[in-house]
Amino acid sequence: MNVLMTGVYGRCGTAVIDHLHDRPEYDFTYLNRSDRSDDHPYGGLDTVVADVAEADAVEAATEEQDAVIHMAAYPYTDGEWSDIFEPNIVGMYNALEAARKQEVESFVFLSTNHVMGMYEVEHSPELYEPEHGLVLDHRDPVRPDSFYGASKSFGEDLGRYYVENYEYPQQFYALRVCSVRMPEYDHPYGDAEQAVENGDIERGSAAYDKQVARMKAMWQSRRDFAHQVECCLQDDNVTFDIFNGVSDNFRRWFDIEHARTRIGYDPQDDGEDWDAPPKR
What is the pLDDT of residues 163-198, one digit of tens each? Predict the structure, then answer.
């Protein structure tokens, strides 16, 4: 399977590289705004250097692809509209148009939990405890918490429009990813430990415990994320659907039963299994 992946060198893209790049059934092409040097951990890959706001470059990279994994975006909730518009709105349109013109069958879109972010704003920090009881699934009303979240909601809607009005892409998968982290912080203590290293909080403080409680609910391990992406690539039943991207965390407030049933998502990790950060 020929697969184009955009926005590849962030937390989610590198998770796919780590777990799927060397698999013989996939031939990946990567599109990113910048390359990595050969001595970089992710250097030496087949990378098209281009911006997703450049329609011609995206279309050229999409030629002869069987699937697109579209991750390129401005990813921060504090972004202004001027930050969001080109990468998240224009870039999404360009990627879908390229898939339509090049007759790409499958389109996997990296959406975000921030499409539903106002639920967390309303219910936190009590939401981080397992007894809270809120569970969100793909049928609940969207409540974006930012221009970023709203742009991803737009991407989901645009994907539905394309599969229902054009011949290609034939399948569209939106993954509302919760919290994937780089390898050194790929555990539910990751955010808190990084904040300690940055001098923002102290280990053992209330702020530290709050970070851990949230991540024990929101963590999606890198292997679970890559597995979920592969579930989409291997599926041939879905036309359009939305799936929450989170590990099988005991205290999660995002449903994964829909992903289990529809695409065979079988996460291996649970934040509750951790009672301390890994030793370095």
Answer: 999 999 999 999 999 999 999 999 999 999 999 999
Q: Give residue 18's domain range.
A: 2-187+219-273
Question: What residues does 6 pair with on adjacent strands?
Answer: 31, 70
Q: Has this prediction a pTM greater than 0.90? A: yes
Residue pair 15/225 in contact (Cβ under 8 Å)? The answer is yes
| 260: exposed, middle or buried (Cβ count in 10 Å: 0-12, 13-18, 19+) | middle
* Catalytically active residues, by annotation: 148
Burial of 153 (0-12, 13-18, 19+ CB in 10 A): buried
103 with 66: CB under 8 angstroms?
A: no
**Closest-CA residue to 276 (of 228, 181, 209):** 209
Q: Which residues have CB under 8 Å from 204's CB, separation 6+? A: none
Sign of CA dihedral 100, 102, 104, 109: negative
d(CA 98, CA 69): 12
Domain count, the chain: 1
In a domain, 206, yes or no: no
